[in-house]
Amino acid sequence: MSKNIIELKGISKDYHIRVLDRINLCVKENEFVTLLGPSGCGKTTMLRIIGGFESPSEGEVFFNGKVINDLPPHKRQINTVFQKYALFPHLNVYENIAFGLRIKKFGEKKIREDVSGMLKLVGLSGFEKRDIESLSGGQQQRIAIARALVNKPKVLLLDEPLGALDLKLRKEMQLELKNMQKEVGITFIYVTHDQEEALTMSDTVVVMNNGEIQQTGTPVDIYNEPENAFVADFIGESNIVEGIMEDDYLVTFLGRKFECVDYGFGRNEEIDVVLRPEDLVITEKSEGMLSGTVTSAIFKGVHYEMIIQVDDVELMVQSTLKSEPGTEAGIKFTPEDIHIMKKQAISGG
Hints:
- Residues 6-235 form the ABC transporter domain.
- The chain is an alpha+beta fold.
- The protein folds into three domains: 4-224, P-loop containing nucleotide triphosphate hydrolases (Rossmann fold), CATH 3.40.50.300; 237-276 and 334-349; 281-332, CATH 2.40.50.140.
- Helix content is 24%, strand content 35%.
- The strands form four sheets. A six-stranded mixed β-sheet has the order 6-7-8-3-9-10, with helices on both faces. A five-stranded antiparallel β-sheet has the order 13-12-11-14-20. The chain has a five-stranded antiparallel β-sheet with strand order 15-19-16-17-18, with no helix packed on it.
- Helix 2 (93-103) packs across helix 3 (108-121).
């Protein structure tokens, strides 16, 4: 079982306001962890504290079991790739990647071997003499990653490194980054506000809001079992309705009782129910577990997104088949499609 390489214990950060509030987090060796949340949630501040560019107001940062709060960035076995790649425009590709090795006074043979290996890893062999400014955004991003990895850090921090790329290139680089991480076998801690990016790349997703961790788990767990309304709403599209947990495996919402797979709540406890739009199936009104009127249908490329008015609640349904506005329709789903969350007040969500 992998051991923890990074541990944050009671980390808080205050400027004129508190931007991180008593954060506790463990990151395992060789894990791809993504800090996910909206702008201003504290994820980049947390990354900078791990990297040594900021000091916590409270709490301790551990690296392999040792406190590193007072260790400057260049003495940590941690490298960072920033959103603005911070490459040296006056140096060619080779010298950009070699920069850290020269600081460490490695010999030319070692530098040549390591730079060549990194260029091969990022798919840019033969680019040694190219000027940085002649490269595309995606190529520059690969050089920034190569420059960070050539120093063989134990942990690589990535602060929204794909933010400046176009959508097609971002999707390509998501897969390439994950493959690189597997190949080099080091810990990646990645910051993004893009939910799809987090779900695509990560072993573990840490969802943040207002300086606090809302939920930590695998992408599947985060998506299928959100712990509160903020997570459910932030990760993908969600229908969230109020309900009552009548008993284990039995829930009432929208005036009807349904079997579900959740248990362990109090009898007659007020809860929130999450229904993912892609899990709902439109059917004939008479066959539906719920029924209502289609009020809109928008084509989204791979599916239609329809709003169905059920009593005084609007439910979003995604389907490859279009139901015309004004149609009376039924909605079907399974007990596994009903996700129960405890009521929880989330400020700013």
